[in-house]
Amino acid sequence: MAQKDIFIIIPAFNPGEIITEVVEKTRHYSQNLILIDDGCDAKNKIILSKLEQLPEVTLLTHSENQGKGFAIHTGVEYALKNHAQTIIMLDSDGQHRPEELPKFLELADSTPFNLVIGVRTEIDKMPLRSKIGNVSMAKIFGFLYGQKLKDTQSGYRMMSAKFARLFLDNVEAGRYETEMQMLMFAAKSKIHIDEIPITTQYFDGNSNSKFRPFVDSLRVLGSFAKYSGVGFASFLLDYSVFIFLSSFLGIYFITAHLCSRIISGVFNFAANRRFVFNHNHSLGKSISKYLVAVALSLAISSTLLYLFVDVLQVKTSVAKLFAEASTFLLNYLVLKHFVFKK
Are 9 and 75 in contact, with CB atoms under 8 Å apart? Predict the structure, then answer.
């Protein structure tokens, strides 16, 4: 593949002097390096303006920081407008070694591909916050989307022009969650994701990373995080009604359970439909599917509640907690892939 057909995107938000080394090493592999200034401060703008003088470098600028996902969108749009056939993304902070680029280019020349992700093989050398986030997200991704990946958080990636267009059309720009949503879109579309082993450099415990473990992990989890919030609110409503009916009014616990689930179910349906899955299809059809899902969940949780209380002699208030927790992930999968499937 000719160098003129390969575009390399490097999003940058206050990367420091290290980006000079990254660009100098990367320019040997492509005639088209796209730097995206995602609202850098004055000191970093000087660094990027010097790099812009290199013949291989194009500098695209955001007037203010918008997030890595927006920077990626900006770079991909520019590459496609300029007839890119292969687009590679790597970070500006020196973690991704440009010397690894021949691995990607060799794959691009030897086999058809859509999306390739560089898998960091030295997990034990990762800073603790990176290790925890990477391992847990890989497990969750495999569970929710059925495609096992060893590293879902690596930003070292390669896209074909065809997949890049699909990415722009189907994945909204954001911050770090955009990279995860790229993988989610590929998995849901049954697009195979290739993996290439890479090594990664960390400087000062990865202190230069702009990733915020808690906030950005919630963004990365996307609809599941929203679902968890709605689920917790529904549970509080459900549990409060259940305790009131069973403990204060003395109603039989199975009857109280059914009543509390009906009340919380109405709230849960409305909140999930509007805020979590943004589902605009037929309301009647959605309600019909939801009733089936509720019946399934209710049957399972009621059976568990009966076993906990009448067979195992667990206290009613405690048994309710275990029964609801046991069906939490199942309910999410049913809502996502059946009730609110787009």
Answer: yes
Query: 315-339 pLDDT, tens per residue?
Result: 777 777 777 777 776 776 777 667 6
**Confidence (pTM):** 0.64
DSSP states of 30-90 as a string? -SEEEEEEES--HHHHHHHHHHTTSTTEEEEEESS---HHHHHHHHHHHHHHTT-SEEEE-
Closest CA to 129 of 50, 238, 202: 202
Q: Collapsing DSSP states into helix, strand and coil, what is residue 67?
A: coil
Question: Which tens digits make up the pLDDT trace of 219-250?
Answer: 555 666 677 778 788 888 988 998 888 888 88
How many other β-carbons are positioned within 10 Å of the β-carbon of residue 72? 26
Question: What does the H/E/C string look like for 226-259?
Answer: HHHHHHHHHHHHHHHHHHHHHHHCCCCHHHHHHH
Domain formed by 3-221, architecture: Alpha-Beta Complex (3.90)
| Residue 176 DSSP SS3 | coil
Would you state the structure tokens that stand for residue 342, as one six-digit string? 């787009």
Burial of 63 (0-12, 13-18, 19+ CB in 10 A): exposed
> In terms of DSSP bridges, do strands 32-38 and 115-120 run parallel, antiparallel, or are they unpaired?
unpaired
Start and end residues for every CATH 3.90.550.10 domain found in the chain: 3-221
Among the ranges 48-52, 92-96, 131-135, 268-272, which has the highest mean pLDDT value?
A: 48-52
Other CB atoms within a 10 A radius of the CB of residue 168 amount to 15
Quick one: tokens of 255? 């009857």
Q: Single out the residue of 230, 217, 253, 184 nearest to residue 328, CA to CA.
A: 230
